[in-house]
Amino acid sequence: MRLHDTWWTxxxxxxxxxxxxxxxxxxxxxxxxxxxxxxxxxxxxxxSLVLGFGAVLVADYYGLLWMTRRCALREALxxxxxxxxxxxxxxxGLVVSGVMLEPxxxxxxxxxxxxxxxxxxxxxxxxxx
Length: 129
Hints:
The protein has helices at 7-30, 35-67, 73-81, 84-99. By secondary structure, it is mostly helical.
């Protein structure tokens, strides 16, 4: 059994990731960012999105090529193995730059807003009717 295949290392990595995200959320509420840094963070955020999502799309493309039998499994796995770094770099860039974009953590989630409530405008009662 290898070290990275044990359940406790996976659990420790998951706890570390949750703690890291919680720390970033806490830092984002206590950080005062000037407009120039905000603009730079926005650029890094969008560049990280392009990097990470582009790498995921390439990995999906190689998976599709393998599923349609247009490339061998070894070739698809080799190509997607090289994409780990840009995917994780994109995710890390999104988290770090998102801290400096001053997110509003007090805003309600879309699921709890009135727009997503169970009553639609056609079934809602109108005043005076």
